[in-house]
Amino acid sequence: MNHYRQIAPRSKEAGGQLFAQFEGDDTIIVEATPPKWCDRRNRYNFHPSRWLQQQEIRKRYSCGLHFVGDWHTHPEAAPQPSQEDYRNMQDCFNKSIHDLNRFIMIIVGYAEAPEGLHVTLIGQNSVQLMFCENNL
Ligand SMILES: [Zn+2]
Predict the structure, then answer these.
(1) Which pLDDT belongs to residue 40?
(2) Please, how many CA atoms are within 13 Å of residue 12, restricted to the half-sphere of its CB?
(3) 85 C-alpha to ligand 1 centroid (Å)
(4) 82 CA → ligand 1 middle, Å
(5) Rounded to the nearest whole angstrom, what is the distance from the C-alpha of residue 75 to the centroid of ligand 1?
(6) Tens of pLDDT along 111-131?
(7) How many Å from the N-terminal Cα to the C-terminal Cα in the chain?
(8) Which of 30, 43, 24, 29 is closest to 130 using CA atoms?
(9) How many CB atoms sit inside 10 A of residue 20's CB?
(10) CATH 3.90.180.10 is right for the domain spanning 2-135
(11) How is the chain split into domains, by residue range?
(12) For residue 136, what pLDDT band results from cuts at 50, 70 and 90?
């Protein structure tokens, strides 16, 4: 995720999926996938290929990895999710088949972490801010 921070003035939004292993009560994110060739990307938008994402989820699941959420970049230092970000993630949560209480949404700004990270847990009818340096 760090590699895709939109530091250059023309760099495009990027994003991918988060895959985790479950150990007891812990969810351990072990992989953040990079953007794919058929994602639609520009400076202010990132629209992943849903078809390719489904393939990734199936492939990882057979290796014991569970889809737990998405990440994407924003062209701002300390990122704030847009209403569309919340809507998309909630939609993804509601339409997916899973046993999770929440999905994770990570937005990556161009400032280095921790300032440049915004982490939210999104459930069926809930949004829970987990980490945002500016709000601490
Ligand atoms: Zn966004």
Answers:
(1) 93
(2) 12
(3) 5
(4) 6
(5) 9
(6) 998 999 999 999 988 888 887
(7) 22
(8) 29
(9) 19
(10) no
(11) 2-135
(12) very low
Give yes or no for a contact between 48 and 88, defined as CB atoms under 8 angstroms apart: no
Q: What is the pLDDT of residues 93-113, one digit of tens each?
A: 999 888 899 999 999 999 998
Question: Tokens 């999770």 identify what position?
Answer: 100
Q: How far apart, in whole angstroms, are the C-alpha atoms of residue 56 and residue 75?
A: 26
> Residue 82 and residue 28: Cα distance in Å, rounded?
26
Q: Write out the two tokens for 66.
A: 């569970």
Give the separation between CA 35 and CA 122, rounded to whole angstroms: 22
Distance 24 CA to ligand 1 centre (A): 31
Q: Among residues 67, 95, 65, 85, which one has the least CA distance to residue 129?
A: 85
How many angstroms is it from 81 CA to the middle of ligand 1? 5
Q: What is the largest CA-CA distance in the chain?
A: 43
**What are the two backbone dihedrals, phi and then psi, of residue 43, each rounded to the nearest 5 degrees?**
-60, -35
